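To close the chapter, one final illustration. This time we ask the reader to focus less on the individual chains and more on the assembly as a whole: which components sit near each other, and how the overall shape emerges from the parts.
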Amino acid sequence: MDRYQFLIALSGLIFSMGLLGVVIRRNLLVVMMCLEIMLNAVVLSFVTFAVRSQTLHGVAMTFFIYVAASCEIALAMAIVVLLVKRRGTLDLSAHQELKG
Amino acid sequence: MAADLFYALLPEHILLALILVLMTLEILGADRKLANCVFTISVAVGCCVLLVQLGQGHTATVVPGEIIVDRFALLARLTILGCGLVLGLCSLTTSGTFKFWMLLSSSLLGGMLIMESAGFISMFIGIEMLSLPAFALMVHGCGASSASEGAFKYLLMSSVASALILFGLSLGYGATGNLSVADFAAALQAGGAHITTAGIIILSGFFLKAAVFPFHGWAPDAYSSARLPVTAFLASIIKGAVVLGLVRILGTLTLNSETVAVVAVLSVLSIFYGNITAIRQVAFKRMLAYSSIAHAGYMVFALTDNTGGTVEALLYYVAVYAVTTIVACTSFSLLVNGEKDDLEPLDGAFHSRPLPATLLALSVLSLAGIPPLPGFLAKFFIFKSVIASGYLVPALLAFSGSYIGVVFYLRIVFRLFKPAPLPLSAQTSPRSGWTLGGVLLGAMLLTLFTLVPGVFH
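The assembled structure is written out below.
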């Protein structure tokens, strides 16, 4: 296994850990952190492929990913503040008024 | 080059200018009416520019490898912007604040960016710009209500979808060595384990954003907690833009048989699930959400077509579906006066307010796919091309599933035409002139779609 394969496997592992966290964790802030972990795994994979193929597209993409991620987290925090104002807790299961 | 950059992207420049002007006007504390006026005029001018460019057959490579303007880009942007205009007119008096218009215009701008992207960087920016303002629109003006819960669910699912799309893109980048949409599509066509994995991850991200069956969980909550114009926006423009973005990637491609099997199974399940669950619903917005899951199923179903008619069939379907949904939502809000969500106020509404009631009845019948309404033609094109591609059994299943939906659409029509239970007081909502104008514009567009079904060919 060369180092590129190792890095791609690592990013896949981190991505799945983040996805698992989004699914099973019940704290609003931890769920958002798991989302960020997923995005960071994606960045690792982009950078690895960029180094392997010696092109710059993947590196350019990482900047846009960070911009989008920070916009997302800014909006998410505003909504989390609204949720906490309403129920006074960060527990996701307290916010289950709507039933799919 | 510079002139090209200006003219080919003129609608985007107009929208950007609109956002800046609205920001300035809000800082100066201008009148709300001015904002309504500025928004309507700018979006209408943008539509006219696109129509002129379409008439000229204008094509341009604006940023090589990232942004190209071709026929599909023109038609799809016209669809998005036209729906934006109809929605804007419909919600002119009810929710026309500066922030609402700013968020709506940035979302429209994102949707238009998706349609003209030839590289995945601009497509990713477009997707994020399309959905980020939508979360803000959902909580805007609602305070700490259940809207924030719906918005959080939508934000979470949409971000997971973005992360999935990005992960798929990074795998595709590893296989092709660049981020061009055409190269990715060509590699997907050629096949291989690596690129197929990437394709399936990207596809599931898009399905999550469009609320296709196993990924639909967020849609009913998000739709039912938002205000009615925002629900109309989520169900029409955002869903349409996501599906058209998928067309931008896969439009001219023949999918391999495994992918076709997955897509066909998911879309048939989506049609059945959406239509059957909608029967149980008693609230309008929730019913609309399940019906939109079924409609996402029809749209995705068109991707299995391999006769090359996917692009036209889906453009027609998305345009018809989006305008119909906006018309249905707006005439419903005209009938119930405000934010009530249950179906009781519709009883006998035809006798007190015939025009909105007729429009609501016609638009839900069109959503159900009753001939000769445009919704039937849209479904007909999709089923025709899928059957022509040789997938008779899935098409028959989807077709029978689609007529389960008639049950709950007809329930609304029956309610509307019931004999009036009480001598109704004349329920005229204040200042509904513009709203009615928007609904009539939508109805005119739908008539046009019915009379000229080949409008996108």
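The mean pLDDT of chain B is 88. The two ends of chain B are 29 Å apart (CA to CA). With these observations in hand, you are ready for the problems at the end of the chapter.
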